[in-house]
Amino acid sequence: MSLSLEKILIVEDEPIVRNLLTEILTRRKCIVRSAPTLAEAEALLSTDSFDMMLLDLRLPDGDGQRFLERVTAMPEHPLVVMITGYGTVESAVACMRAGAFDYVLKPFSPSQIDIILKKAQAYSQLLQVNRYLSNPEEAEDGGLVGRSPAMQRMRQMIERVAPTDATVLITGESGTGKEMIARELYRASQRRGHPFIKVNCAAISENLIESEFFGHERGAFTGATERREGRFELANQGTLLLDEVSEIPLNLQAKLLRVLQEREFERVGGNRTIKVNVRLLATSNRDLLSYVEKGEFRQDLYYRLNVFPIPVPALRERGDDLLILAEHFLKRCARKHGIKVNGFADSARAMLAGYRWPGNVREMQNTIERAVILTESGRPVTSAALGLPGDFSAFLPPAPPEPEILTAPTPVTVSARTVTDEAGGVLTIAILEKQAIQAALLQTKSNRTQAAALLGISIRTLRNKLQEYRTAGSPLEAELDSNES
Ligand SMILES: Nc1ncnc2c1ncn2[C@@H]1O[C@H](COP(=O)(O)OP(=O)(O)OP(=O)(O)O)[C@@H](O)[C@H]1O
Ligand SMILES: [Mg+2]
């Protein structure tokens, strides 16, 4: 006990009941405060935060139900369990309707309190997990699509390692499906009934990352107005995904290593050691070993993470899967947008097969979605609708040209023309880099996550670059009205 139900307030005027509850809960390692009146309870609630409150229905200075209604209207209120005597069950039921979590009848046994604690524990963990589950668009997905030997090997690996508690390091280019594989591992694991928590190590600002991982105590730093559990605690009994693990700052890597070795840590601003039982998965689209060589990633941490490596092949290395995936996305997008699409035209197939797909499956998914929107109902998707840069005639079967319908907005790419300036001089790498970033932001409508994926860099790197431009007094146009993503 004590992970998400740590502090409990007992509001009860009968000393015998109050002491009994205090004893039971203290033995379950909870921190217990008690109040014999509503006034005292109110005072405690205003200065401290509680995870659960046991509340008597009748108190000398007022009515428990009224107090319950006030408490549940507070933003971060404790779970409330009503304590009721014989003859007041009806009001207990009314309290349930008013937002009480449960009720317990006097007299009660310690085991009844245990049952309530267990239930409340599970419930509050679910609540917390819900708050963090942020990616609804991926939830609708089926499983991994593809039958290529590379995919089959990967499925075998997933099957083998999923049921174990081994740490898995999933590596591959951006957009290859690493996160999806992590979800598959979780789904096929024995922990699937428990939380699956993801931390995107690249998207959290450096000064918050420690508190995201390990949580903080109230008052640990400016703005820490409440105690907050970190992702390690939320993932207890379950699985924690460290997404883009290469982006963890060096100073935090040591702390992470300790959790991996000892499965224990302290919250920021706290000194109580918290033990957790967590299975770890990590992804990286960077070459972690080269980070190790450069001294940017701890070698010992690397070995701890790399217990079972799953390298994910790039889309262009998956042979026929390319077209199988394309058909899959075509069907899905057509359904989503209510457009009847008549497959791919030959030119489109040639383009799909010949393109390099630097952004892998994600790029393909986005390209096809855009193409479907550009395609008239009943017509096939053409190469013009796909609008990928390059010459794909070598991939075309000999056939007469088909009628083209709509042309995709020209994706901004760095071509030979943009490598030289107007006078024909060669541009510096810095300028080319800025142009590429500009192009990626334009193409992704300033979605930084997607832009970084297109560019093959981490979000952190992209963010640093944008910051550099702003500091230098020449922010990117495409970035001006962007929203953080
Ligand atoms: N084999 C697959 N079958 C179906 N959909 C896939 C497959 N692989 C990837 N996808 C889809 O492609 C998109 C990108 O996948 P995902 O987010 O897992 O990539 P990633 O490797 O984590 O990328 P990044 O390194 O940029 O974080 C997701 O929408 C995912 O659902
Ligand atoms: Mg990812």
Overall description:
- By secondary structure, the chain is α/β, with parallel strands linked by helices.
- It folds into four domains: 7-131, 3-Layer(aba) Sandwich (Rossmann fold); 145-313, Rossmann fold (3-Layer(aba) Sandwich); 316-395, Helicase, Ruva Protein, domain 3 (Orthogonal Bundle); 416-479, Homeodomain-like (Arc Repressor Mutant, subunit A), CATH 1.10.10.60.
- It contains 21 helices and 16 strands.
- It has helices at residues 15-27, 38-47, 64-72, 89-97, 110-132, 136-139, 149-161, 178-187, 209-214, 231-234, 250-262, 288-293, 299-305, 321-337, 346-354, 360-374, 383-386, 416-419, 429-443, 448-455, 459-471; strands at residues 7-11, 31-35, 52-56, 58-59, 62-63, 79-84, 102-105, 168-171, 196-200, 215-216, 228-229, 239-243, 264-266, 273-275, 279-284, 308-311.
- Strand 1 (7-11), helix 1 and strand 2 (31-35) form a beta-alpha-beta unit.
- The two termini are 36 Å apart.
- Residues 138, 141, 144-146, 172, 174-180, 283, 285, 361-362, 365, 453 line the site of adenosine-5'-triphosphate (ATP).
Structure summary:
This protein has 485 residues and is α/β, with parallel strands linked by helices.
